[in-house]
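Task 17 of the worksheet. Students: predict the tertiary structure of the chain below and write it out as structure tokens. Keep your answer in the requested format; marks are given for formatting as well as content.
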Amino acid sequence: MKTRSKYHHGELRKVLLALAVQQIAAVGIEKLSIRELARQARVSATAPFRHFPDKLTLLAALAIDGFTELAHRMQSPAQTKQDWETQFVQLGSTYVQFAEDYPVHYQLMFGAVLGDFSKFPELQQAASNAYSMLDKLLAAIKYEERLRAEVSVLGGLVWSTVHGMASLKLNVPPAEQSVDAAPRQAVKALTQDLHGPLQMLYRGILASG
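Model answer:
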């Protein structure tokens, strides 16, 4: 582990964020302790506050990193020249996979802890950048397929559906035998192969005109 004398400018910030992810995964957001992060990073108790004035600012930084990573991942399917259905399915699958890969970030990005993003303009921008990938794709599909629904309505429908898929996959793990086996099996059937459900969603949108 690095000693406090070996940290370069900005390096401590990255270390603290990485440690925060580990701590949240272990004990939850409410028990996140900046003092404990300082101890683990082997810096003074006040050093983290040079980067994060308070706990909420640190959590917002994690959410910003999450939205930035999500936008980066969604660029590939959004920039391909494949047909609309394939792009749509890939975009939805990318979203769900991101939630699996970054569960702590995902919880902060879409949970109630941060609430109103207006306190953090950079977080607002990062969230907007990520959402714009879906927005642009749906605008193109609406134009090409001459759909009547507004892009904002389509976006809300698609986002809520895919977000629900991701949340179920994270929070309702399948079980072999249990009193609630039926709902768990439903989650397993829905999320073990996302191509089919996302394809159904896309074709449902087209069918609605």
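Marker's comment: The CA atoms of residues 34 and 159 lie 33 Å apart. The first helix runs from residue 11 to 27.
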